[in-house]
Write a structure and sequence with these properties.
The chain contains three helices and two strands. It is an alpha+beta fold. The radius of gyration is 20 Å and the shape is extended.
Length: about 90
Amino acid sequence: MKFNLKSLAVVALLTFGIAANAAQDIRIYTADNQDGKISAATIEKAFENAGFYITGNNDMNRAFDAKFKTHTHDAYNLMTLHKKDMVG
């Protein structure tokens, strides 16, 4: 198989493009919540009100407790959501 510089450049650009796009799929947010008003339920409701479809909102602290017996997170949820008008 013969590779030339143009083919190598195309492969590199495609790989970079795919990696850059995939990096945008995960968002991590933190917030000051000393008064305790922000919860997984209030965040889920805000996304629903903004037109998102929630496919999962999992309490990951329970998973960490079961597997590692200790963690340093006060609240750690894994939420999967989709914008309703973007999904068929």
